[in-house]
TrEMBL record:
Pfam families: Glycos_transf_2 (PF00535). PANTHER family: GLYCOSYLTRANSFERASE, GLYCOSYLTRANSFERASE 2-LIKE DOMAIN-CONTAINING PROTEIN. This is Glycosyltransferase. Residues 5-176 form the Glycosyltransferase 2-like domain.
Amino acid sequence: MPTVSVITPFLNAEAYLGDAIASVRSQTFQEWELLLIDDGSTDRSLAIAQAAAAQDNRVRLIDHAAQSNRGAAAARNAGIAAANGEFVAFLDADDLFDATKLTEDVALIRANPTAMMLYGPTRWWYPGEEQRDWVEDMSAQAGTLHRPPKLLKDVLLLQKGEVPCTCSVLIRRSAIAGGQGFDEGLALYEDQTLWVRLFLRHPVLVSNVARAVYRQHPASTSAIASNAGLYDRFEPHAARKKFLEWVAQHFSESGVRDPAIDRALRRCLASYPEHGNLLRVSDRAYGISDRLVEFVSHSMWSVVVRVKNGLRKFAHR
């Protein structure tokens, strides 16, 4: 039985799929299976996947409703249903794993047996323009096993940290068994619906070491959505509103009760006119308090950095 099931959906990704497959086959950790799910490709992607499966019996091509175009969430869910590994990882067809990703991730999550999910930063790669490359900073959350539902509030709702890319996570398959996968009703933010389910219920470990590469190119889903004005990483927009409404409904139906999540949801939804009346006076007070704490923490950290730099200069005299 494989230790890790790597799930890769693809749709007309002939320019990139071979590289993604090669990055899995070159892992220093060898106890994996790679599940390739065709989401309705009309280019050579399916032939590339078939050739990879013929060359390596750890690579499997998963039947996905006659390869119809049902979206990334449905394709990933088909992969989850077919997975045999103790852990599940995701790799989109245009992204890459570093060679030691699975070795290091498996060791880290096994060293923290109560963690049901591990994630870390990703390197944003601009092929041919590498001077633009950058790595997400997750130092504020890294090195900690976060009890639920803290990351749901801080990262997904209040956006106080980087949201994990799909290629950066490792999840115990037992945490997502029984259909607890990605919501197939969202075209954008569908990845975060699974993070919501996990952050709400399970301890999650965060690393600050980048072990995956998120390729930037104009044909990616996020680039197309951004260029069409449908998505923005920082500003309110319709797709995020729909996601927040999904979170509110899921939280309401989950049976979990947490006033901090209720408050965070009201604050987030208040950015949209139709939900503006949800905000309470107490929510504004909490918002001011949170910003004050962040300002004081940032100021104290700046002082610490200046003191350390001064001591280093003194030590080198």
